[in-house]
Automatic annotation (TrEMBL):
The Molybdopterin oxidoreductase N-terminal domain, residue ranges: 4-39
Domain Molybdopterin oxidoreductase: 47-504
Top-level lineage group: Bacteria
Alphabetic keyword roster: Metal-binding, Molybdenum, Oxidoreductase
Species classification: Bacteria, Bacillati, Actinomycetota, Actinomycetes, Kitasatosporales
Pfam short name (any one): Molybdopterin_N
Name of the protein in question: Molybdopterin-dependent oxidoreductase
C-alpha cells in the first residue's frame, strides 16, 4: 500500500491488518531511511491510546499559574467526557475573556496530506467558532520571510520560483559559494509530501558539469563529499562580516557590476559609503572581515575576485538567519550577488535554502492543489511565531514587528494540534515557566511527547498510516495516494473527527464538515485540483489515481513574477514589487522604522553571544543546533532510525578533537553540555568535521527534564533548546536566534539517569 510522508513515498507491507514493514519505492533514487523506522513507533509504549486529562486540572486546582503542568498524572476519560470538557472550556474562555484569548497554536509540520492538515483543520474549527489569536512566520525562516519582501519584493516565499534551478546551475554556472553549506541530509524532506528524491542526483550533475563549490560554514560536512567542495571554516554568526569584506574588495578594485547596480538597484551609493567607512570611520575591508570571521584576508580577497570574474551563484542556507540580527546575512547576500555581476543571468546570481528540502532548486513550482478550505479569522490579533513565551509571560506588553507596534494578547486557552512547541521553541526552561500561565492547554497527539505531558487535555490522534488522504509536496509535481494502511491505535481518531464532534456540540458541525465524510473530502479536494487545471486529461480520475497511487501534475514554466533575468533585461517593463521597483540595497521603508538593530541597509551588528563576546571566557564553545539527519525535527524520534543514532540513549554531540582533548573527553563518552540557561546530557562524537570552538547538537530529541516543571533541571536526552536563547533576531522580524548560543562541555561522571522521554506519564482510569 502507498505511504506518503514529508521524507518521501514508500510501500507498506501489511499482513492481516498488521503493519510488517515499510519499504522504499523502487523509483526513488535516494530514499530516506526515516520511513522504515516508522514501524517501530507505530505501536510503541509512548502511543496515546485514550483521551486523558491532567489530574490536577480535572480536580479543580487553580488553573492559572498551576505549576503541576509537566509533573502531574493523567486520568483517562471517555471520548464523550473529553469532548464535553473541551467544548465547555472553549465556551467559558470565549465568554469571559473574548475570542482572542484562544491561541490556535498548531505550529509545526504535522504530517503529510492535503485534507488531514492539522493546522488547516484547527484554524478552520476555531475560526468558525468565533476566531483565535494566530501566529505569523516560521521558526525556520522568520528573518528571511520578513526582510526579503522589502529587498526583492513579492510574497515571503516567492523567491523559490525566482532563483536558479539545479539544472540551470549545471548548464550555466562556474562557481557556487554556499554560506552555511548545502547539507544533503536536509533534502530528505518536503513539506506536504514527496514522491522521489532528486536533489542528490541534481547536485552530482552540477559537479559532473564542472561547477566548483565553496562551503563557508563551521561544519565541513555541510556539503556532500562528492561535491569536492572547498571548505572555508567561519566563526558562527559572522557570515555578514565575511560578505561585507568581499563586497569592499569588489568595490575598491572596481570588480563590481556598476551597470546592474545603477539600472536594477537603489541605494548602492549609501551602502558604498558604509563599506568604505565614511559613516563610521571603519572600512569593512578584507583585513577587518578576517579579524571577525577567522577567515584569511587573502582568502576573502581571492573569493571576491572569483565571484566577480566567473559565472557565480551565491547561496545562503536558512540556519544563518536563525541568529542574532539574522536579517543581515540574507539581505547582504542579495547585495553581494548584485555586485558580483551574475545576478539575473541564467543559472547564476542568488538563491536561498538549497538542499533545505527536496524542492528548492528542483522545480520552480506546481499548479495549485486544493486543501481544506480556509475560513477568515474574525480576530485580528497575532504574534510573531517565536514570541509565544513572551506573550504568556507578559500579556499587554508592546513589541515592534516589521514597522508595527503589537500588543501581546492575554492567552487563556492554548489549543495545539500538529506541532511540538517543546521542540521548536528556544530556552525550554523559560517556556516551562510561561506554559504554566494559561488556564487550559489542549493538545492533539499520537505519542506522549513533552508537549502532551505539559498539556491539560490530551486527545489521541491517528497517524498518517491510519487515515485516508493524498499528498502534494511543495513544488513537487506529483500527487501521491495515502490510503489507510491500518486501523487507528487504541481509541485514536483523526483531527477532523475530533473537531467535527466538538463543532457538533458547539452548534456548527454542518458548517465545519459541509456534510462530507472524510473520504468524500479527499475525493472532493482531488476533483477540485483536477478541475482547476482546466483540462480533463491533465489528471486521471480519482478512482484511477487511488489504484495507481501516483499522478503527475503538468509542469509550470516561467518567467515567474519578480524574475531577476527579466529585471536585468528591462527594469522598466519588469519591475519588482518593491517601492522602487528595483532591488532595495537601501530600504527607505525599513530605515523609516527607526530600529537600532536593523537599519536601512545591510550592516554588521555584533551578536549577543559569539566566540568574540565576553561571555566566551566562561562558555568558550559555540553551539550549532542544526537539523537532524535521523528524523524530521522531533518527528519519529521514537522511530527506529532515530533510536539507532543515539549513544547510550542520548543524542550525539559532535566535538572537535582539540576541544575534546583539553576537556578529557573521549569518543562515545556521555558529556554534560551547559550554560546559564540549562544543561543536557549527550553522547560525544569526536570529529574534525566541526571547526575548533564549535560543537554541533541537532534539534529534535524529545525533551526529558529530570525534574519536569522545575526550571533549570538537567535534560537527560540531549535537546539543544535547553541551552538556546529565547530572544528575537531584531525588532524587524522577532525571529528565533537559536544559533547564537555559547556553552561548555564536560565529562559527565555522575550516575547515568535513565532516559524517560518515551515513557508515558502516570495514567489513572
Amino acid at each position: 500500500m502507498s505511504v506518503a510522508t514529508h521524507w518521501g513515498s514508500f510501500v507498506a507491507v501489511v499482513d492481516s491488518g498488521r503493519l510488517v514493514r515499510i519499504e522504499p519505492r523502487a523509483d526513488d533514487p535516494a530514499p530516506s531511511p526515516i520511513g522504515p523506522g516508522m514501524v517501530r513507533a507505530a505501536d510503541d509504549s509512548a502511543r496515546v491510546l485514550r483521551p486523558a486529562v491532567r489530574k490536577g486540572w480535572l480536580n479543580g486546582l487553580p488553573r492559572a499559574h498551576d505549576t503541576a503542568r509537566g509533573t502531574d498524572a493523567f486520568v483517562e476519560v471517555s471520548w464523550d467526557d473529553a469532548i464535553a470538557l473541551v467544548s465547555e472550556e472553549l465556551r467559558r474562555v470565549r465568554s469571559q475573556h473574548g475570542d482572542s484569548a484562544v491561541f490556535g497554536g498548531s505550529y509545526g509540520w504535522a504530517s503529510a496530506g492535503a485534507f488531514h492538515n492539522a493546522q488547516g483543520q484547527l484554524h478552520r474549527f476555531l475560526a468558525l467558532g468565533g476566531g483565535y489569536t494566530d501566529s505569523r512566520n516560521t521558526y525556520s525562516t522568520a528573518a528571511l520571510e520578513v526582510v526579503l519582501p522589502h529587498v526583492i519584493g513579492g510574497a515571503p516565499w516567492s523567491y523559490q520560483s525566482r532563483m536558479p534551478m539545479w539544472d540551470e546551475i549545471a548548464d550555466n554556472c562556474d562557481l557556487v559559494v554556499a554560506f552555511g553549506g548545502l547539507a544533503l541530509k536536509n533534502s530528505q524532506i518536503n513539506p506536504g509530501g514527496l514522491a522521489r528524491h532528486r536533489t542528490q542526483d541534481l547536485q552530482r550533475k552540477c559537479r559532473a558539469a564542472g561547477v566548483r563549490f565553496v562551503n563557508i560554514s563551521p561544519i565541513r560536512s555541510d556539503t556532500a563529499g562528492f561535491l569536492d567542495a572547498e571548505w572555508l571554516p567561519v566563526i558562527p554568526n559572522t557570515d555578514t562580516a565575511a560578505m561585507l569584506g568581499i563586497a569592499h574588495t569588489m568595490l575598491v578594485n572596481d570588480w563590481h557590476d556598476e551597470d546592474f547596480l545603477r539600472r536594477c538597484c537603489v541605494g548602492f551609493d549609501r551602502f558604498a559609503s558604509y563599506l568604505t567607512g565614511e559613516f563610521d570611520g571603519v572600512a569593512k575591508d578584507a583585513a577587518w572581515a578576517a579579524r571577525i570571521t577567522g577567515m584569511g584576508r587573502d582568502t576573502i580577497t581571492e573569493l571576491a575576485r572569483r565571484l566577480s570574474t566567473q559565472r557565480s551563484l551565491i547561496m545562503v542556507n536558512y540556519a544563518i538567519q536563525r541568529a542574532d540580527h539574522g536579517e543581515q546575512p540574507i539581505w547582504m547576500s542579495v547585495v553581494l550577488a548584485a555586485m558580483a555581476g551574475s545576478m539575473g543571468r541564467p543559472g547564476c546570481g542568488w538563491g536561498a535554502g538549497y538542499a533545505t528540502m527536496d524542492a528548492t532548486g528542483v522545480a520552480p513550482g506546481r499548479p495549485s492543489v486544493a486543501s481544506i478550505p480556509r475560513v477568515p479569522n474574525p480576530v485580528a490579533d497575532f504574534i510573531p511565531v517565536a514570541r509565544i513565551a513572551d506573550t504568556l509571560l507578559h500579556p499587554g506588553r508592546t513589541i515592534d514587528y516589521d514597522g508595527r507596534r503589537l500588543t501581546l494578547p492575554e492567552l487563556r486557552l492554548i489549543y495545539w494540534c500538529g506541532g511540538n512547541p517543546f521542540h521548536h521553541h528556544q530556552d525550554l526552561h523559560r517556556l516551562t515557566r510561561a506554559w504554566q500561565t494559561p488556564d487550559t492547554v489542549v493538545v492533539h497527539e499520537a505519542w506522549w511527547n513533552t508537549t502532551a505531558k505539559f498539556a491539560d487535555i490530551v486527545l489521541p490522534v491517528a497517524t498518517s498510516l491510519e487515515r485516508d488522504d493524498f499528498a502534494a509536496g511543495f513544488s513537487d509535481p506529483h500527487l501521491v495516494a495515502m490510503p489507510k494502511v491500518r486501523e487507528p491505535a487504541g481509541e485514536s481518531r483523526t483531527d477532523h473527527h475530533i473537531f467535527a464532534a466538538l463543532a457538533s456540540r458547539l452548534g456548527y458541525e454542518r458548517e465545519f464538515t459541509q456534510s462530507r465524510s472524510e473520504i468524500e473530502w479527499v475525493r472532493h479536494l482531488y476533483e477540485q485540483t483536477r478541475a482547476g487545471l482546466g483540462d480533463d486529461g491533465a489528471l486521471p480520475s480519482f478512482d484511477d489515481f487511488w489504484r495507481s497511487s501516483t499522478a503527475e501534475l503538468p509542469s509550470l514554466s516561467g518567467p515567474f513574477p519578480g524574475s531577476f533575468e527579466a529585471l536585468r533585461a528591462d527594469p522598466q517593463r519588469f519591475p519588482l514589487a518593491t517601492p522602487s521597483g528595483r532591488i532595495e540595497i537601501f530600504s527607505e521603508e525599513i530605515n523609516s522604522f527607526g530600529y537600532d538593530d536593523c537599519t536601512g541597509h545591510p550592516a554588521w551588528f555584533e551578536p549577543v553571544e559569539w566566540l568574540r563576546a565576553g561571555l566566551s571566557d566562561r562558555f568558550p564553545l559555540h553551539l550549532i543546533s542544526n537539523q537532524p539527519a535521523s528524523r524530521l525535527h522531533s518527528q519519529y524520534d521514537n522511530g527506529g532510525h532515530s533510536l539507532k543514532s543515539k549513544i547510550r540513549g542520548r543524542e550525539p554531540v559532535t566535538i572537535n578533537p582539540l576541544d575534546a582533548a583539553s576537556r578529557g573527553i573521549e569518543n562515545g563518552m556521555i558529556v554534560r553540555v551547559h550554560n546559564d540557561r540549562g544543561s543536557c546530557l549527550a553522547g560525544a562524537v569526536l570529529s574534525d568535521d566541526v571547526m575548533p570552538g564549535v560543537i554541533q547538537l541537532s534539534t529534535g530529541a524529545w525533551w526529558d527534564p529530570a525534574q519536569p516543571g522545575r526550571s533549570g533541571t538537567l535534560d537527560r536526552h540531549g535537546n539543544p533548546n535547553t541551552l538556546t536563547a529565547d530572544r528575537g533576531c531584531s525588532r524587524l522580524s522577532q525571529g528565533p536566534s537559536a544559533h547564537s548560543a555559547l556553552v561548555d562541555v564536560e565529562p559527565y561522571d555522575g550516575p547515568l539517569p535513565d532516559v524517560l522521554a518515551f515513557a508515558p506519564p502516570p495514567l489513572e482510569h
